[in-house]
Amino acid sequence: MLQHILSVALVAAPLVASASPISSVAAPDTLGVTTTASIPRATSGNSRPWYRPNHVVLQTGGGLGMVAGGAGFTLKDRLELDILVGYVPEKYAGSALSLASAKLLYSPWTLPIKDKWSVKPLTVGGYFSYTHGTINDEEPNQYTKGYYWFSTDTRIGALLGSRLSYALPPTASGYARNLSAFYELGTNDLYILSYAQNRKSLSPADILVLSLGLKLDI
Amino acid sequence: MQLRGLGVIVLLWLAGCQLVEFSPNQAYVPARERSLTAQNLRRLEVQPADDTLRFVFVGDTQRFYDETEAFVASVNQQRAVDFVLVGGDISDFGLTREFRWVNQRLNALRVPFLTVIGNHDLVGNGRAVYQHIYGPLNYSFQYQQTRFICLDTNGREYGFGRQVPDMAWLRQQLADTAGSRRTIVVGHMPPTDEDFDPELVSAYTAALRSCPQLVFHLAAHVHRFTAGQPFHDGVTYLTTYSLQKKRYHILTVWGQREFRLETVAYGAGS
């Protein structure tokens, strides 16, 4: 029950919060652009090469590892592509799992709160993950073609979340730098299918997965 | 400081209720949801015995959660049922959450339930998940003078190679007839199926044939009822419905090898 309430609250939070920026933009008196938080990022990168990541990520959960870390690219402070490598120890999975995943995230709004704090109230996204090291890893010729219609190691999923950021001193080369804490509620293809076919007895909360993480601009 | 303590508690709680999931393939559940086979056998042990063995047999609960609820409601209306036997393919994708969803529903049964592992339960890390949640893949128990031998018969999931079913273990169990007057063997995969290790079919059927107190062999997988003696050796092989078919069997066993099979249909159509 508690889990259901929390899930609903977490799903609702970014949606409720994201309703507010529109009204605050409409009300000129309360516009907060004069704060010291460095948003938007004035210096986001003409001088750095394209392949240099904009941030690093460390997270837990979300079906992407007990710990997952990686780096990502940002486009116009809104669109991000994060590449993560995750790990689940044998104790929690029966075999040690290594996961490679890619998350594509879109966060349309950044709202200053006060001083160096800001929030991205809504992040929507999708992910792809590949799991290596499962016990029964579909050996060649083990099954006839199409025996199992689904992949046991490749998952795709959707997620929704929020992010709280703190502006750190800029880098030596003048890049704005935020340290952010985020959460994401997501689910995967197989869970969605299970829910879709059992709408009476499963609830959306049953198929939700939470991830918690930190993101640091570099 | 207090805040940090609260944070740790919240994190542990989130992991405990599985909202923070490390992988859908993880094999980790809270302690009370582990070793369900042992838990159910303990319940069975203290259940007052009568002189007739009567149990429900159904297969393949995989991804049929709505139907599982209706199944439980129907079984709970039956009288004098000793336990429920689920013939494998509890899950569809071998994922922990699926097993939990099924168990949450089967927990509403008034009688204990026992399982054998199905081929779908062995997908991904399902073997570890099953061991963590239920217990050993091969186990036996005695109830009402009947020895139940429950084993993994899903040869294809191991790439065949004469590993599964574990013939040495099965022969040992079949030979151990002390204190019982009947034997029943249960596996998900019937030996007539192409997913049963073809190199073990003759050894398997021969072992069953050599057990004079064997009542029958139970399997699921084919999602329908079949009954017969496909190896023409006097050994009866039965298969049961998948849960989706909204039908299950009640098997009543008495005497040396007497049994009656009833089919129960429930819910609206199938």
TrEMBL record, chain B:
**Where, by residue number, does the polypeptide cross the bilayer?**
none
Which superkingdom, per the lineage?
Answer: Bacteria
Cite the Calcineurin-like phosphoesterase domain residue spans from the record: 53-224
Pfam families in the record: Metallophos (PF00149)
An MF annotation (GO) of this entry:
hydrolase activity
The cross-references to SUPFAM superfamilies, in alphabetical order and at most eight, read: Metallo-dependent phosphatases
Q: Write out the coiled-coil annotation as residue ranges.
A: none
The protein's name in its UniProt record: Calcineurin-like phosphoesterase domain-containing protein
Q: Which organism is it from?
A: Hymenobacter swuensis DY53
